[in-house]
Write a structure and sequence with these properties.
By secondary structure, this protein is mainly α. It has helices at about 1-30, 35-60.
Length: about 60
């Protein structure tokens, strides 16, 4: 199914973008525990939201 494949590709792209942002933030933290924790939390929340969006989109498909 084309729609399902597109959703999965979009999910993969979202995860890649989240990781790139996480990497940038984490390396910019330069060892600061608070900055590293913030980067981790934003990444974790992004993953949770991306997973949920993927699940919802797949449920909506006819």
């Amino acid at each position: 199914m084309q729609e399902q494949d597109a959703i999965e590709r979009g999910y993969g792209a979202a995860i890649e973008n989240l990781f790139k942002s996480f990497y940038d933030e984490f390396t910019a933290a330069i060892g600061s525990p608070n900055a590293e924790m913030g980067a981790k939390e934003r990444f974790r929340n992004g993953i949770i939201h991306a997973r949920r969006a993927r699940e919802l989109a797949l449920e909506i498909l006819p």
